[in-house]
Amino acid sequence: MLRLRISYGRENNGGLLSRPIDVLTCFRTRRRLGAYLDGALEPGATRTAVAHVAGCARCQAEVDALHRLRSSLRETLSVALPADWTGFWPGVVRGIERERQAAAAPARQSWQGRRGFRHPRVAFGSALAAAAIGALTLWQVMAPTPAPAEPVVVHAAASEHPGASVMVYSPPERDLVVVWVFDSDSE
Prior knowledge:
Strands 3-4-5 form a three-stranded antiparallel sheet, with no helix packed on it. Strands 1-2 form a two-stranded antiparallel sheet. Among the domains are: about 5-80, no CATH class; about 155-180, no CATH class. It has about 190 residues and is mainly alpha-helical. It has helices at about 10-15, 25-30, 35-40, 45-55, 55-80, 90-105, 120-140; strands at about 5, 20, 155, 165-170, 180. Helix 4 packs across helix 5. A hairpin with a 7-residue loop joins strand 4 and strand 5. It is flat. About 50% of the residues lie in helices and about 10% in strands. The model is unreliable at about 1-10 (pLDDT under 50).
């Protein structure tokens, strides 16, 4: 494993130690400081972190900053507002009264008992729509289907090219002529 070592570096030990400190150990320790402060590290990793923090000024400063942050969070989160129970009992009473009123109200028996179908405009519109649907259905069923006047004729014609063929399609009920020219691929 390749290790980068810096000797006598002020950025790594704050100038307090005269021995080299492993940069990767400092990096790994900083990544684990939260778990170290929570006590979630394994015993070997905890010993390594304690030894490193004791010798590294930057990591010690970061541990101190995390301690201050945690203590201020505890102070902020520990202040609890007193519970407001003034509206609790009236809310319970209102809920019970709503349930009583819902149980006492008569349930609607069917869709016919609703007010909308008693209104003359709604009744007239519904009858008119039903009559229109019935008339359209009857017209579709009773209308005769036209039979084809005469069968479709397809004529074959000769062409100047040997192996080619021509077909002419002409339905009698339309003014339409379709001409197909087929050429042989044997050249």
